[in-house]
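Structure (tokenized):
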């Protein structure tokens, strides 16, 4: 799964982070780089095997995160980012 900022945190971005410890380290590194990180959820849509979460990030940028599921587990995730807000 590719996460926002993935390439900035991992030296090998072509490989997913394996296991709970690796994900914990990944998010800890990301939070150190973005101490003001926060989200405002604006919309959530659910289908049979996916969820789309629409939110604004700490910069006010619109983002849609899509997670697809197989056998009750996330099997793929990606984000689509709107333009950076101006005048901030």
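Design, position by position:
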């Amino acid at each position: 799964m590719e996460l926002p900022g993935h390439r900035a945190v991992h030296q090998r971005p072509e490989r997913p982070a394996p296991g709970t410890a690796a994900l914990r380290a990944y998010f800890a590194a990301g939070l150190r780089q973005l101490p003001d990180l926060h989200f405002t959820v604006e919309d959530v849509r659910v289908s049979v095997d996916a969820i789309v979460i629409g939110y604004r990030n700490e910069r006010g940028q619109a983002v849609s995160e899509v997670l697809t599921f197989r056998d009750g587990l996330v099997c793929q995730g990606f984000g689509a980012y709107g333009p950076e807000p101006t005048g901030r």
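Reviewer-requested clarification: The chain has two domains: 1-37, 38-82. Residues 1-12 have pLDDT under 50 and may be disordered.
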